[in-house]
Design a protein that fits this description.
five-stranded antiparallel β-sheet; 6% strand; 377 residues; 2 domains; Hypothetical protein af1432; mainly alpha
Length: 377
C-alpha cells in the first residue's frame, strides 16, 4: 500500500473524531445537535481519508492502536481514550469501508458510547469484531523459544493494560475496578504455577506514561511470587497482590510534571510526594471491598524497617510485615526496571545495593529472599 503525503495527519484527525464522537454521544445522546455535528465531522474526515483506499481498519492489541497496520498509540493524543472505549465494548478491530453512511456512523458511535454488555454490531460498511491470533502469530512450533517469549509478553501486556485502565478511570473520578485488579493478581498466580520465579513475570520499561501501571504490576508479581515461595496461602497471596497493585494509588492523581521529576523535587512538591502514602490510605478508605492489608500497605510502604521513613510519625515504629514485603518489592522493581529514574541496574549491582540497605531501610528477611532469586544461575 502506497500512502499519500499527509496520510498520517488524516489518520490522527480520524482518531480524534472517533474519540470525540463517542464522548459526545455518551454525554448528549444521538439526537442532540452536537452529536449530529460529530457524525458529520467523522463522515467528512473518513471520506477524505479513504482517497484511493476502499477501507481503513483500526485495530487494538493490548494497549496499542494500529491503523492500516501502523502504530498510532504514541502519536495520537486521543488514542488512549479510543482504546479504552473499544476495549470496554469488546471491539478488537473496526473497519470502515468507502460508502459508509452517516446513519451507520451514528449507530457505531452510539454503541461505542453505550455502557451495556451487548456486542457492538456490524453494518454493511462498518465491520467490527475481536482479534483472533493464530498459533503462528503467537509463536508456533517452528519458533518454540521465540514463540514462548511472545506469548508471555502478550500476557504481560494484557495485565498491564488492565491495571492502567483501572488507574486511569480512578484518576478520572470513577469507581476503582477492584474486580479487574483481582483478576490481574489471579493471572499472576496462574503464571507462577508455570514459572515459580517472579522475576520471569516482570513487565519491561515502557516509558513514563505507562510507568505507574508497569510498576504496580511488577511489585505485585514480586510480592505474590515471594509470598508463595514463603508458603503463604492462596487467599493471603491474593490479598497481598491486590495491596501491592494499590500501594502507590495516590500517585495516579498527582500532576505528571511532578511524577516525571520525582527525584528532583523541591519545596512544596517534596511535601506532596511525601504525603502520597497518607493520601493513598484516604483514597482507599472510600473504596470499600478491600482487604485491610491493602490499607496498611498503602500507608506504610515507605516506612523503613528501622522505623524511619515517611509519612512522618510522632513515634518511630516498625511497619507491618506485609508493608515490609511490598517495600522490598517496590525497591527491587525500581532498581531493575525504572530506566530514567534510578536507572536500570544489573543483578549484581542490585544485590549489592540490597545488601547495603538490609536491616536498616529494608526488612532483612525479605531482602534475603530477593537476593536468593537474583543470585540464581
Amino acid at each position: 500500500m502506497t500512502l499519500r503525503a499527509g496520510w498520517e495527519d488524516l489518520v490522527l484527525a480520524a482518531i480524534a473524531e472517533l474519540a470525540a464522537g463517542a464522548t459526545t454521544m455518551g454525554l448528549y445522546g444521538s439526537a442532540h445537535p452536537r452529536a449530529v455535528q460529530a457524525v458529520d465531522e467523522l463522515s467528512r474526515q473518513l471520506n477524505v481519508l479513504f482517497g484511493d483506499e476502499r477501507e481503513v481498519t483500526f485495530v487494538v492489541l493490548a494497549e496499542e492502536l494500529f491503523v492500516q497496520g501502523r502504530p498510532f498509540t504514541r502519536l495520537a493524543r486521543q488514542a488512549p481514550s479510543l482504546i479504552r472505549r473499544l476495549r470496554r465494548r469488546g471491539v478488537g478491530h473496526a473497519t470502515f469501508r468507502s460508502g459508509v453512511s452517516r446513519e451507520e456512523l451514528r449507530a457505531f458511535l452510539e454503541h461505542l458510547a453505550s455502557t451495556d454488555d451487548t456486542p457492538v454490531p456490524s453494518s454493511p460498511h462498518v465491520q467490527v469484531g475481536k482479534i483472533e491470533l493464530s498459533e503462528r502469530e503467537l509463536g508456533g512450533p517452528d519458533d518454540a523459544q521465540g514463540g514462548q517469549q511472545r506469548r508471555k509478553l502478550a500476557t504481560v501486556r494484557d495485565r498491564v493494560a488492565v491495571v492502567r485502565e483501572c488507574f486511569s478511570d480512578f484518576a478520572a473520578g470513577t469507581d476503582l475496578g477492584v474486580a479487574d485488579l483481582e483478576r490481574v493478581v489471579r493471572a499472576l498466580l496462574d503464571g507462577l504455577d508455570e514459572e515459580p520465579d517472579p522475576l520471569a513475570l516482570l513487565a519491561p520499561w515502557e516509558g513514563e506514561s505507562r510507568w505507574a501501571a508497569v510498576h504496580a504490576h511488577n511489585v505485585a508479581a514480586l510480592t505474590v511470587g515471594t509470598a508463595r515461595l514463603a508458603g503463604m496461602s492462596p487467599t493471603s497471596c491474593l490479598d497481598l497482590g491486590l495491596a501491592a497493585l494499590l500501594h502507590d494509588i495516590a500517585k495516579v492523581s498527582l500532576p505528571a510534571e511532578v511524577l516525571d521529576r520525582e527525584l528532583e523535587l523541591t519545596g512544596d512538591e517534596i511535601e506532596l510526594m511525601l504525603d502520597h502514602p497518607r493520601a493513598g490510605l484516604e483514597a482507599l478508605l472510600q473504596v470499600g471491598q478491600l482487604p485491610d492489608v491493602a490499607l496498611i500497605v498503602a500507608f506504610e510502604h515507605h516506612l523503613d524497617f528501622n522505623g524511619t521513613g515517611f509519612p512522618r510519625l510522632r513515634a518511630p515504629r516498625r511497619p507491618h510485615p506485609a508493608a515490609r514485603l511490598v517495600a522490598a518489592a517496590d525497591t527491587l522493581d525500581v532498581l531493575l526496571t525504572a530506566r530514567g529514574r534510578h536507572g536500570m541496574m544489573t543483578r549484581e549491582s542490585t544485590v549489592a545495593w540490597l545488601a547495603e540497605h538490609q536491616g536498616t531501610t529494608l526488612d532483612p528477611g525479605w531482602v534475603s529472599a530477593f537476593r536468593q532469586l537474583l543470585e540464581r544461575p
